[in-house]
Amino acid sequence: MPLPLIPIIIAATAIIAGCKGEETKTSAARKGFVDGLDSMDRDRWEKSNGWSNGDPFYCGWRSDHVTFADGKMALTLDNAKSADKPYTSGEFRTSEFYGYGTLEASIRAASGEGVVAASLFFHTGPYDKNPHDEIDVEIIKGKLQVNYYVNGKGGNEKVIELGFDPSRAFHAYKIDWRPDSIIWYVDDKEVHRVNASAGPLPKTPGRIIMNLWPGTGVDNWLGKFEYRAPLIAEYDWIKYTPFSGTVVEPAAKTKIPGQTMLAEAIEGAFPFNGAQAAVLKNGINFSAKNANDPGLTMPLKKGTSGKLSFEHAGTVRNEWGDGFFSVLFIGAGEKLLQRKDLEIKADVQKAELDIPEGTVKINLMTVGKSSADVQLTNVVVKEKKD
Fold first, then answer.
1. Closest listed residue to residue 139, CA positions, set 91, 171, 94
2. Looking at residue 321, what is its pLDDT?
């Protein structure tokens, strides 16, 4: 079937010396993909099998309820018993974790009440040793419901009238997830938007998941589920494009005598691994798996000097305990002028580092086996005092 095009995302400005080309779970997820769902790509996808999510899910998951035929993937809900539930359905999910970017799929939902008739979402949580962050597209009672969770806190539901029956034909549903906003589209038409100014947004990379399920004890939300025959949700294709963000210039009111916002000190917009990093007007968000990740490289304007001042906090996402990230000041010819390792903690820490003379760029990366998400805020360059 015809598939949507996907742009090529340019790699980081420079690869830190010593980094290998080995693909880790996080670095693989930095790549975009288009999948026609003609068959199962076992390097990318997993079928949930032999377990249930618990209430309000009124079904267990079985791998044989995810099938491929005629160039499409189908999730089937029927009355086979599994995982101590009276019904069985299918769930399809990535093995990798995906961060900021655009997720889009062509879907024909199941019909009827009492079910989430089709879904498309980013999700991670304690099972992955992460906070519960989630961004949803759900088809419920012939309408679209969008929602998101930040560290387990939801309550951001929005129900949208579609103007068509989503069970009769395929339609494209899209989530555009950025550091400062989330935008939902149906057939390339924007239907809802939330901005960071309204409150915290999800920031933790998650699995991409699609499922179909009946509810129990949630009649006021889904309607009452009454099984009559198998229900099927179909997916024709799915596409993920990493976010290719650029530097956002700070507003004039943020200027303080004697210091410069980092966005102004950087030499223009620059390419980097946008799926896992973003430079905002007063800070940086980046994620990395380990020392094999190239991290984030920022070229500085000629003559930048003084002190790099910032606050930092983060979350370590592995079993090795404490984690660290490094700030490297690089000179001409890739010469390492200075390196500072900082501990990753949930509580906000302050740091102020001298910028060595001759620095042409700054690299950020995690240390050793540190798989982490790190946020730097109030990042400024303070001028030297004579």
1. 171
2. 52
**Predicted model pTM:** 0.61
342 three-state secondary structure: strand
Domains and CATH numbers, the chain: 32-242 (2.60.120.200), 252-382 (2.60.120.430)
Structure tokens at 269: 């917009």
Q: Which residues, including other chains, have CB under 8 Å from residue 34's CB and lie 6 or more apart?
A: 3, 4, 5, 6, 237, 238, 239
C-alpha gyration radius of the chain: 23
Give the C-alpha separation, 251 to 261, whole Å: 10
Other C-beta atoms within 10 Å of 352: how many? 10
Active-site entry in 91, 134, 157, 161: 134
The 10s digit of each residue's pLDDT in 288-335 is: 655 555 567 778 888 888 888 888 877 776 554 567 888 889 999 989
Q: Which of 104, 138, 264, 383 is catalytic?
A: 138
287 by Cβ neighbours in 10 Å (0-12 / 13-18 / 19+) ranks as: buried
Residues 347-376 have a mean pLDDT of 80
CB 75 within 8 A of CB 62: no
CA 237 from centre of chain:
19
Quote the CA–CA distance of 280 and 245 in Å, as a whole number: 9
Asked about 161 being catalytic, the answer comes back as: no
Report the distance separating Cα 251 and Cα 375, nearest Å.
Answer: 20
Tokens of 343: 């501990």
Nearest CA to 359 among 284, 269, 275, 297? 297
Confidence band of 376 (pLDDT split at 50, 70, 90)? confident
User: Catalytic: 134?
Assistant: yes
Overall average pLDDT of the 221-234 stretch: 97
Q: State the pLDDT at residue 361.
A: 87
CA distance 245 to 271: 8
- Count of beta carbons in the 10 Å neighbourhood of residue 122: 29
Instruction: Say how many CA atoms lie within 13 Å of 8 toward its Cβ.
Output: 2
Burial of residue 200 (number of CB atoms within 10 Å: 0-12, 13-18, 19+) = exposed
